[in-house]
Every structure is written in C-alpha cells, then in structure tokens.
Amino acid sequence: MTELLTPASEAEAADIIAGHAASGTPLALCGGNTRTGFGNPVAAAARLSSSALSGIVAYQPGEMVMTAKAGTPLAEIEAALAENGQFLAFEPMDHRGIMGTEGTPTIGGVFAANVSGPRRFALAGAARDHLLGSRFVNGRGEVIRAGGRVMKNVTGLDLSRLMAGSHGTLGFLTEVTFKVLPAPKAAATLIVSDLTEEDAVKLMAAAMALPLEVSGAAHLPYSVRAAFLGGALAGDAATCFRLEGLAESVSARLEKLSAYAGPFGPLTRLGDDETKVLWREIRDVAPYRDGTLRPLWRVSATPSEAAHIVGAMRLEAAVDAFYDWQGGLIWMRMDGAPEAESLREKLMKHGGGHATLMRAAPEVRALVPAFEPEDPAVAALSARIRQKLDPAGIFSPGKMQRQENAA
Amino acid sequence: MTGAIAFKTPKPEILARRDTIISDLGGLLPTDCLIHEARELVPFETDAFLAYTRVPLAVCLPETTEQVARVLAYCHENGIPVVPRGAGTSLSGGAIGQEDAIILGLSRMNRILDIDLPNRAAVVQAGVTNIAISEAVKPEGFFYAPDPSSQLACTIGGNIGMNSGGAHCLKYGVTTNNLMGVKLVLTDGTVIELGGKALDAAGLDLLALVCGSEGQFGIITEATVRLLASPEGARPVLFGFPTSESAGACVTDIIAAGIIPVAIEFMDKPAIEICEAFAKAGYPLDAGALLIIEVEGSEDEMEAMLARIIAIAETHGVMAIRRCQSATEAALIWKGRKSAFGATGRIADYICMDGTVPLSQLSHVLKKTSEITDRYGLRVANVFHAGDGNMHPLILYNINDPEDAARAEEAGAEILKLCVDAGGCLTGEHGVGIEKRDLMRHQYGEADLRQQMAVRAAFDAEWMLNPSKVFPLEGRDD
Ligand SMILES: Cc1cc2nc3c(=O)[nH]c(=O)nc-3n(C[C@H](O)[C@H](O)[C@H](O)COP(=O)(O)OP(=O)(O)OC[C@H]3O[C@@H](n4cnc5c(N)ncnc54)[C@H](O)[C@@H]3O)c2cc1C
Ligand SMILES: Cc1cc2nc3c(=O)[nH]c(=O)nc-3n(C[C@H](O)[C@H](O)[C@H](O)COP(=O)(O)OP(=O)(O)OC[C@H]3O[C@@H](n4cnc5c(N)ncnc54)[C@H](O)[C@@H]3O)c2cc1C
Predict the structure, then answer these.
(1) Which CATH class, in words, describes the domain spanning B232-431?
(2) Is residue A70 in contact with ligand 1, taking CB distance under 6 Å?
(3) Which residues pair with A331 in a beta bridge?
(4) pTM for the full model?
(5) Domain boundaries for CATH 3.30.465.10 within chain B
(6) B248-272 confidence digits (pLDDT tens)
(7) Fold match, A186-283 / A289-365
(8) ipTM
(9) Ranges for the FAD-binding PCMH-type domain (chain B) (predicted)?
C-alpha cells in the first residue's frame, strides 16, 4: 500500500521533498487522483498530494487573472469564475468517466497534465497557453517562482509553461496563476448530418477558414451517436460546429454557417442549453465512459489526416473512434489489443502527431509505453532538463518515460 | 551612452586565432556567406538598442539548416561563442555580438516552405519576416496573428527568440500562443524538431521553453506557425480622454464588462503630440490621453460591441470619439501609433522601456513614472498596449550628453523596478537581452534564477550561445 503525504503548506512540502531527495526515495506527485492509472507505472512507495494546499489566493475579474493553490478543486474555481461571468476558456475535461475514478480534479492537476477541451484547436488554445505563473518545489526541495500574473512576460525562461504537461515529473506545483476570460453570453451548435468521415474532416477545415470564429468542430460517427444528448442526435453521423459570443454575433454567424454548410447535408440547430450538454459530453468523451478497461487512445494528429489514420487502423483492428478539434484530436477505443505500434506507425505515415494510452488493463500498461516514444536527441535533452529540476530523480520516475528507455 | 552595462573581456586565445577561424568557416560555407572585413561588419555592430556596439569576429549568413549545423559544430568544438541574429531589431541588445564571437544571421533563410490551409499552418524558414507570412496568406483570407510594430523588418526567428507580441495580442496572444513547431540546431550541431502540425506536443513542452529563450538554446532554422481566418472586418476607433487616469480606468472597465476588443492602445499627451506632428493622423491635441480601440467582426457585430464600449467611455468623461468611415482613415489612425517610435526618434534620442503591470496598477504606475522622470529632469512619452498592461515609457534624452544618458538609464531602471513592485515584470515583449540582465535579481530570487540558469545549461552546458545575455554575469552555474 502506498503512503499518502498531504502537506498543509508549501514549506512542509519543501521539507518532505528535501528529505526524499536526500535519501533518493521516489515520490509520485498527485492532486486529486482523478487520473489514477494514467501514464506509465510509477515505482514509488509514497504519494505526495497537493490536496491540502487549497484555496483561491487572488482573483481580480477586471484583470482576467486568478491565482489559486494547486490543490484547489476545479469545481471551486469554476464556481468563483461563474459568479463573475468568467470561465476557463480551454475547458478542461473531466477524466473520471473514462478512467473510472472518483476523486476531486484539482487546478494543479489540470495544468500539470495540460488538460484542454474542445476549444483548444480554436483561439482559446491549450491549458498551457493560459498559465501565466506558478510556484513549485523542485527536486532539491527549493521553492521556485516562475512567470508572473500579467498576460505578457518575457523576463527570463518560461518555466511555468514547461511545468504544464510535465505530469508531475519536474516539480511539485503549489500555486498556479492563470488567465481567465469572459464567458460567452450565448452559444449555438449547427449539426450537419450523414457525412463520411473524410468529408466531415474537409468540411471542418473549410469552416475554420470562414471568418466565423467557430469554437468547436467535432465529428461523431454513427457508432458513437447514441452516447450524446440521450440518443437525440438526428441522422446517421453528426458533424458539429459550435458558435459562441454575444447573442447578436451568434445568431448572425449561425445564419452564415448554415448557408455555407447547407449543400453538404441535412442541418439541425441546437440552442444554448443543448449546446452546453453536447460539448460537455464531447469534452468528457461520453462514448467511452463505458466502465471498461478496453484500451483508449488519445491521438493528437494533423487534422486533415485524421480520417485516413482511423481508416487505416480499421483495416487492421477492431477500432471505434470519434473526432474533436477539427480532426486534430481522435479518441480511439480498441476492442482487443492496444495496437500501439501499428497506431504510431500510421500516425508517422500520415502527417505526424502522437498517441497517448489513456487507459488499459494494468498488465497492458506494464508493456505498452503510455506516451509516444521520443526521438533520441529530444529524449536526451528532456532527460538533461529533468536532471536540472530533479537531480535525485525522485519525481514520479518513469511516468513519462519508462525506466528502460530513460536516458 | 556611459556604458553602465559591462561586457566580458574577449578571450585573447580566440582573438589570436582569428585568421584561422575565418578561413575554417570559409570552408564550411559558400563564399559569399561569410563576412569578416571591418567595413562590412559595421551593420552587425549593434541592433536597435543603439547605445552599445561590439564588432564581432565574423558574421556567417548560412543558407541551409545543414550549413547552420556545420558552423555550430565547428564553433562548439573550438570554443567560439555564437550570437544568433534575425533582423537585428531587438530593443534590449539581444542580438549585439562580442569581439570573440561570431554572429550567425538567418537573413538568407527567408523562404516560405509550405502553406497548409486545411491545417491552418505555415512552415517558414527562420529569416522570413513577420509581415511576409500574413502577406502570403492574405488572398486566401488568413493571417498570422502576432504583429510587433517592427513586423516589416523583424524575422520569425527573432520573434520566437523574444516571444514577441503586438497590438492585437490582447485577443490573439503572443508568439508562444501561435507557434506550433520549430526545427532547432543545438550547440553541438544536432538538429531536432519540436512540435509540428498536430496541436499538443508529445513529452515535455520544450517548445514553450524555446520560445522567448533569446537565442540561448539553439538556432531556429524553421518554424511552423498557426494561421487564423481573417475577420470579416476590423475597425479602430479613437477615444480622447481628459487625463491618463480616466483613460486607464476606462480600459479596466471595458475588460471587467466582459468585452475583449482585439486591441486597446494607449497614448499620453506627450505621445499624442509627437505622433500627431509626424503622422498628421488627426489625433485630439487637447486630450490628456487617447485610446485606439479596435473591434472586429461583421458590420452588426462591430456596431454592437462599439455601442457597449462607447457607453463605458462616456462614464469616464470621454471628450472625443472618432470612428473611421474608410480603410484610409483606419490606416491613418494606426499609422500614428505604429510610427510612435520613429516619430519620437525624430525629435530626440530615447530609450524605450518595456515593463508590464497588472491592469489595476496602470494609473498608479503612470503617475509614478512621470514623478520619476521629473525627478531626473527628463521627459517621458507613454505609448503602449493597454489591454494587457504592457507599458512602453519612452524616455527622451540627449545621446551626446553622457550625464543625460546616464540619468536616462537610471530613470529607466527605476521605472522597471516600479513595474515589478506593482506586481508586473521587467519585460513584456522586448526581452532581457543585455539591457535588463542586471535587473533580473529584482524580479527573481536566488533560487529562481539559479533554476533558470540550470535549465539554460541543459541546452548549452558551456554557455556558448548568446553568452552574456539575459542572466547576470556573476553567479552563473549549471
Ligand atoms: C493506492 C494507489 C496506488 C497507485 N499506484 C500507482 C502506480 O503504481 N502507478 C501509477 O502510475 N499510478 C498509481 N496511482 C495513481 C497515481 O496517483 C496517478 O497516476 C497520478 O497521481 C494521477 O494524479 P491525479 O489523479 O491526482 O490527477 P490529477 O490531480 O488530476 O493530476 C494529474 C497529473 O498531474 C500531476 N500533478 C497533480 N498535482 C500536481 C502537483 N501539485 N504538482 C505536480 N504535478 C501534479 C500528477 O502527477 C498527474 O500526472 C495510484 C493511486 C492510488 C490511489
Ligand atoms: C521600431 C520597433 C518596434 C518594435 N515593436 C515591437 C513590438 O510591438 N512588439 C515586440 O514584441 N517587439 C517589438 N520590437 C522589438 C523587436 O522587433 C522584436 O524583439 C523582434 O522579435 C526581433 O526580431 P529580429 O528578427 O529583429 O531579431 P533580432 O533582434 O536579430 O534577435 C532577437 C533575439 O532573438 C535571437 N534570435 C534571432 N533569430 C534567431 C534564430 N533564428 N534562432 C535563435 N535565436 C534567434 C537573437 O539572438 C536575439 O536574442 C520593436 C523593435 C523596433 C525597432
């Protein structure tokens, strides 16, 4: 059984880490444990959790900036923002459904794992794009301040954004400062039915070339359709476009987009409420909240190649998939083996990208690298950077790079 | 200028080998890609931080990534420092060389390699100018968002080096938010690729680290950048306010109301006078400050947004509102703003500061800034990106009067410290370079700086790439 350490202050966390560094004892870093099982297996007898480092430290709506301790529940952050008509534009997903975990998602975990939702491919960008500053404890047990609380900052190196997506392998985040934005006043979705996957990918790309600020573009093939809106999506396959903004803008843009998309297939429109539900279901990968451990891949692809990648996989394995981010994000579930090599090889052949194994049975995780293997020169560079932040190698060892591959 | 900024003494053993080095480099590059004659080195003695000059050992202007790799490998083996350079428009001395270093310029690598509209990406060589990308995709209805005022000249490599921003970054973000990938040559000549046309990077986000690393991590030879669909229309509107305070308060209220225009530019009275005299843009000379607020979208959307903005401006006693009726008028409004630096340069020498402050501190910092310059007996003009709190006080002085110059440097340092103390930072877009190197300790603690320097050393253990920039010279370690 792993020991769970929950320091109540940054100083206490620093002490614990310094102690573990001195003895070379690994620590698995975590927040609320909603991504239990994600990543490569970590050999650590103790877990260091930010759960007791909680609370909003500073929030000025007029500056569009918030500072919160790393263990603050995401729900608390979202509630405070909603009170002021603001939100996290990168709409972080909730992993609990697909991972079959409970726990409380924390803001530190959101940034440590760079968790972004459907708006990521549009102007909003990823979680890391919103991270302005952070405090973290490095592997020497030193408290480091990086970045700041202003939108533009090029003073020295951007260590905060380096922390984003480092999955607890570089430092223990204690506090994060991030950009927040006014929540859109209105939203609507236009659905084009019955497109093939190839045509859907093309139409999504074409829509992004229009001056309409489409903020969501997803294609839901027939096989997953029933998982959305209680099975109420019309037609066979649904290609969904989200528009958001001032009410005037949304209705004007919806007209323009309808006029453009009309020739491609039957159209349906969803209003504000249904739009919210649909995109939350897309964000949280509703079709694969199936209570199983069937291998689930998150594939970051070159958007125009998405349908080719899925098509090529289907020829070899039992695969189910749907598309977010205009095709740039493919959620792919395997019915049998994870087919890692085959998937990664297809990805390379079709424009590049990378595949992350989000979930699988423990015996599979033990064999299949969860993260895309890196080019040796890049891996060596990453190893040197890890060494500079965590010289004793105590933070979640092997999580991103399996031990046998680590340089 | 007085030379308050120290330079390292050049290494005699490198200087002594000058001829050999030049002949060796000559063997690595096509003949016209190497510059070493005194007369030809003059344009490379400084960048847009004109107060300091250093003649480099030689300048290499490679034409391919392979040539860049060869030169770096050679310099690595022979212990020769390398200073990367784009167009040399850095305002913080980021591209200034030193006597025992070679300058590696990317200006010949200026081809757009691939425009991929379905994936909204362009792959370009590092020496392509910022404006060239937007120009190339404009006919298809796309643009590249970050728009530094130097965009006609500055290169995408330099933009990445400095993580440049511009007037429209309030909505579209800065370079790091619009960069998808780079090809990077490491100090030893190894070529790596980070990112690409897929959205999120695999592994650690090294791209975020490279962006804004000021030429210390490697030479960028290619970049993949995000293209965006151009808005249907855009319209700048000019607002004149009685005082800087009222203009500043108006900015905060617009943001608090949930309205994000694409740009909010601010000018105080001295800046209005300077820019108007130059650009004849019709700026209100009786105003204490003006804002240029640009909105985007369809005709209806722009009208709806403007109506809200005007209602807020009225609560702050706005004196003049000028909407433009034509593209010519819109261009004129921007001309005054975009030529602010040049216009100031016509009436005096100046140093351009680049601190960033939280929006709520704008009025306070503006007031303190004029107190500081008054105390030094200097004039200041403020022109900046108000939406994101990035201030550019232009401190006017006489470059031929050493005392005046020293005062300007000191006043500038005080203003930057003021920004940090107000919760902001030393630089929002121009970078640290040599200019703010010694102020880094004001913003960061010892452990913070040591951590940054250690990460820097992970890329360049011997500190050979742009060696005397960004970090204080003393206290460096790995
Ligand atoms: C009894 C038990 C045993 C476990 N054994 C293993 C095991 O052998 N192997 C294994 O891989 N997992 C194991 N886990 C799960 C492990 O805790 C998770 O992999 C990981 O910690 C997920 O983080 P999270 O769920 O807190 O998610 P989140 O809080 O959502 O965090 C997500 C990511 O961010 C990182 N993170 C979160 N907070 C911080 C912070 N403050 N600073 C820096 N990084 C942060 C995490 O490391 C994680 O990568 C076990 C969990 C339990 C309960
Ligand atoms: C009139 C004027 C207006 C300006 N307005 C703005 C503005 O609005 N916003 C803004 O952000 N900046 C502005 N600047 C500053 C400057 O233009 C930017 O910093 C710009 O990005 C520098 O680009 P450059 O190609 O000239 O790079 P350089 O000045 O040549 O170099 C800048 C830095 O990047 C490094 N570098 C250059 N190329 C590479 C490469 N290929 N690989 C690795 N490192 C490299 C250099 O070593 C140096 O540290 C302005 C400057 C002027 C003169």
Answers:
(1) alpha beta
(2) yes
(3) A298, A322
(4) 0.94
(5) 112-229
(6) 889 989 988 888 899 999 999 999 9
(7) yes
(8) 0.95
(9) 52-230
